[in-house]
Amino acid sequence: MDLERLGTDLLAGDRRALARAITLVESGRADHRAEALALLARVAGAGRQALRIGLSGTPGVGKSSFIEAFGMMLTGQGLRVAVLAVDPSSTRSGGSILGDKTRMDRLAREPLAFIRPSPSQTQLGGVARRTREAVALCEAAGYDIVLIETVGVGQSETMVAGMSDLFVLLIAPAGGDELQGVKRGIMEAADLILVNKADGALRETAQRTCADYAGALRLMRPRPQDPAGFPRAMCVSALEGTGLPEAWAAMRALADWRAGAGVTAAARAGQARLWFEEEVRAGLLARLLADPAMRARVAAAGDEVAAGRPASEAAAAVLAGLYGLGGRGR
Amino acid sequence: MDLERLGTDLLAGDRRALARAITLVESGRADHRAEALALLARVAGAGRQALRIGLSGTPGVGKSSFIEAFGMMLTGQGLRVAVLAVDPSSTRSGGSILGDKTRMDRLAREPLAFIRPSPSQTQLGGVARRTREAVALCEAAGYDIVLIETVGVGQSETMVAGMSDLFVLLIAPAGGDELQGVKRGIMEAADLILVNKADGALRETAQRTCADYAGALRLMRPRPQDPAGFPRAMCVSALEGTGLPEAWAAMRALADWRAGAGVTAAARAGQARLWFEEEVRAGLLARLLADPAMRARVAAAGDEVAAGRPASEAAAAVLAGLYGLGGRGR
């Protein structure tokens, strides 16, 4: 692969180069990995940054319609928008929103937009690395906004929130006891809760839902670094386009505040440091587990711990064996 | 130290032996650590288990009064109760609830109860290990219930929830906009929200607060493994003792359900496995960082990553250097 050329094309904003670069960081092959690291190091020098917006919503909330309408509004303002999907549960070949390229057919044809489906990987750690690196590549390619969308299965919402500047939760209108679509804990991460489908017969239900969530947000401790009025719950209609400018204005207001207060830079530095530490830890463990005998030993010790063996003692025994310091354990 | 004797006394339920054993697991000395691991391995064989209840509440909610009243009710039923405090933010000598032994003076004098203040450590990882090991020691000493209480600073609530069978959130009555005492996200972990101080002039406010939280809990997705009606919000008064039998009945009902469904055993096995993996990861990193030159290198790389260097590439460079595989990085 001509890495030099790929880097140059990527920095020039070429969409095919961006797609190829993301394929490279998604690859599990060792030689591809080395190339991916070299490419990332090269394009990092450009120092470009996008507004990173995490977006979560369960199936049925109209996420694709929202992204299409929201994305078209942004590209209509001349902004370049990249959409990355994260779906660790996806087993479909080619990723979870392969179909979304069809469903988001207007945005997919828009020259200022780039849509990338989720890779068909199931390991969350791999998905996290790929997504962080894909965000960096989109930034290097000059995108103004990177939308990182997830269906919110398992830990993926927390993971996406941990790599975003803003986190938006999209929910559907529902009445009374139906209001159970939000995973416990994810409201922690939400800066903005958008109740979609506030149109037609569902308009009033959406408004009530919005008021309910606004009430629930008030029950929680405010984040000291944020301006008054956040987190906020608002109504939108992807179908009619209503509420989208207001939602974007709220995102911009919060993003500008955080950028001005130095919160964004500090958060990104902290996220990057955490990512680095995770990579070191994961790398150390991977090297440990690369030895089949050691892998079997760790697995057996894990089973014993699940059955009652003290974890610290089992871990100490495994580590002592590794470094030839003499086993203390059994 | 006579480990054999300590283990025997601990298994016989001797409180002084339990206190000494916890001091041993809290020690940072390498020889103490080896003894602690041997002791844990020895007493694990007894296979005793308590009901582990995590309890969180910010200062001012009346946590000490609640623990005293709740603990006295339990010991009044002949149950043995251990209280472990977790407060990573504590810098006071001797731990955060040294004063609580005075405030909980009835419970502290009760032969069936054991109260242990938080150690004056600031590193969350160390606190987590110590607390998990202290829980195991309390179980070995034959306690029926281990209450793990935390003030809910930073990640400590998540940590405590991750080592409990049940998680209880204690909150204070408050009206309207004052209702901001719950850290975002912690409602995810709560099985039971108890609104304390439902007595005297605050009774009605407490009932309204309880209804508000019940409403907020309904906004969230139920956990499929739990029976209907959980998580639940209830009123209690530590002062008058009202609501405590009902709260205990709810805890028992949920605990029995989970035990019967195999949920508790599976959760404990999963928690233990996770703990083991954390110990292995932390141990590997500790060994890496034991070398001053490597420590400096990791710190420098972390700073570079915070300033923009790609995390994966920096991690790969650090790891390559460690294993003499030739650096790929800068």
* CATH class descriptor of the largest domain in chain A: Alpha Beta
CATH superfamily of the largest domain in chain A: P-loop containing nucleotide triphosphate hydrolases
Question: What's the CATH architecture name of the largest domain in chain A?
Answer: 3-Layer(aba) Sandwich
Mean pLDDT of chain A: 84
List low-pLDDT spans of chain A. 90-100, 176-180, 324-330
User: What separation lies between the terminal Cα atoms of chain A?
Assistant: 50 Å
Give the SSE string of chain A: HHHEHEHHEHEHEHEHEHHHH
How does the helix and strand content of chain A classify structurally? Answer: alpha/beta
Oligomer: homodimer
Number of domains of chain A: 2
Helical fraction of chain A equals 40-55%
Strand content of chain A: 5-15%
CA-based shape of chain A:
globular
Q: How many strand elements of chain A?
A: 7
What is the CATH topology descriptor of the largest domain in chain A?
Answer: Rossmann fold
Number of helices of chain A: 14
